[in-house]
Amino acid sequence: MRRDQAAIDQALVRLDVQAQRRQRSLIEAYPVPGNGTRVRVAGRELRNFCSNDYLGLAQHPALIQAQCAAAREFGAGSGAAHLISGHSLIHQRLEAELAEFTGRERALLFSTGYMANLGVLGALTQRGEVLLEDRLNHASLIDGAALSGARLVRYAHADARAAAARVHEFPKTSLIASDGVFSMDGDLAPVRALAALARQQQAWLVIDDAHGLGVLGEHGGGVLELAGLGAAEVPLLVGTLGKAFGSFGAFVAGDAALIDYLLQRARSYIYTTALPPAVAAASSAALALIRSEGWRRTRLAAHVERFRAGAAQLGFTLGDSATPIQPLLVGAASEALALSAALRAAGFWVAAIRPPTVPAGSARLRITLSAAHDEADIEALLAALADLKPQHLRGERA
Q1: By C-alpha distance, which of 261, 255, 259, 265 is closest to 233?
Q2: Do both 98 and 180 map to the same domain?
Q3: Alpha-carbon gap, residue 130 to 154, rounded angstroms
Q4: Has this prediction a pTM greater than 0.90?
Q5: Per-residue pLDDT tens for 200-223?
Q6: Which among 129, 130, 309, 312 could bridge 173 via Cys, Cβ 3.0 to 4.6 Å?
């Protein structure tokens, strides 16, 4: 787009007409200490059903205490990139803990999950090669492919046979990448089949399990634990620390030589400031809780089951998800916005997800559940949805 104010204004008007213009909501406070499921927005207390704080750790006293203690010792920021003078003892400890947790030799911290995926794909692929991805992969994997210079080829969502057909069509495939849990649908990648395909092709396999680590599996090992896969089958695992961990940042885990290669070649690692050590300390505290408090996953799974059963009784259409991400499919972007607004008026914060984040015609409410919710929260949300359904999901208006 050329530098043209009229063009900018027209583009914004088009977004309004298409119900695709995004607005930010301002959290003013957390009214209940230690509980992120209650927020104050525009002077009203809302029940929060759109956070990725799946285990309810973001407000946990142990994380806050660890972060404050590390800030007193190491300061508010890291002051430099990891390869200059920004890499601290706290970073080193967290990397070792994450490597051990994921069953890999080493882990490498990145400042965000987006940067982790850009760094990995850019370092491991090059022009003339083919990078194969699920059609509904996160934007960071799509953008990482574009920046890598490799040819991006996409296969039908979560369809391992379609992936195999694309490999047959493009024999220069050198890397296969997929979300583990898909962020807008909550369903799982066919990781066992992808691992077999990558092994047959002698290609790298990258699984970004941002929404599965800490949440899925008896020990919180995510989709790979559910599938019984280890480092031999999935050489590169990407995880984020801003979801189940309740903190911020990301990491890549793999064998020692591979991680050292990324340290040398991943531009989004080399050329950015390191995470504040205090944030890394909070992530270490979160990992300890993830490993020791399995009841959080059990409670969360019960919430998911309760919500899905209740929604089915009410006749809602949900995505095929057994994870905390529960997409309630609406269709039109304007209708999703209207239902989200009606829920907010009733005291519930639920995000409307619209194109281009999801395909046209598949706008939805992205309802996310947390171990910090209680049963009364789930029942209250179901009751509110039942009250609103006649007006918003049957084409009627009060």
Answers
A1: 255
A2: yes
A3: 10
A4: yes
A5: 999 999 999 999 999 999 999 999
A6: 130
**Band of the pLDDT at 276, cuts 50, 70, 90?**
very high
| CATH number of the domain residue 315 falls in | 3.90.1150.10
Buried b / exposed e over 256-290, threshold 16 CB at 10 Å, is eebbeebbeebebbbebebbbbbbbbbbbbbbebb
Is residue 362 annotated as a catalytic residue, yes or no? no
| Given the residues 138, 211, 303, 373, the one annotated as active site | 211
Catalytic residue among 243, 303, 373, 392: 243
Taking a C-beta distance cutoff of 8 angstroms, is the pair 130, 147 a contact?
Answer: no
- At 391, the pLDDT band (50, 70, 90 cuts) reads low
Is 13 inside any structural domain? Answer: no
CB 283 within 8 A of CB 83: no
Does 109 lie in the same domain as 99? yes
Q: Evaluate the CA torsion angle 140, 141, 147, 148 in order and state its sign.
A: positive
Looking at 273, 292, 311, the residue that finishes a domain is 292
pLDDT tens column, 288-331: 999 999 999 999 999 999 999 999 999 998 999 999 999 999 88
Domain count for the chain, please give it.
2
51 given a catalytic annotation: no
From 88, 111, 183, 268, active-site residue: 183
Active-site residue flag, 183: yes
Q: Rounded distance, CA 68 to CA 11, Å? A: 44
- CB neighbourhood size of 128 (10 A): 10
Cis omega (within 30 of 0) on the bond before 355?
no
Quote the domain boundaries for residue 112: 61-292
Q: Is the pLDDT of residue 397 over 60?
A: no
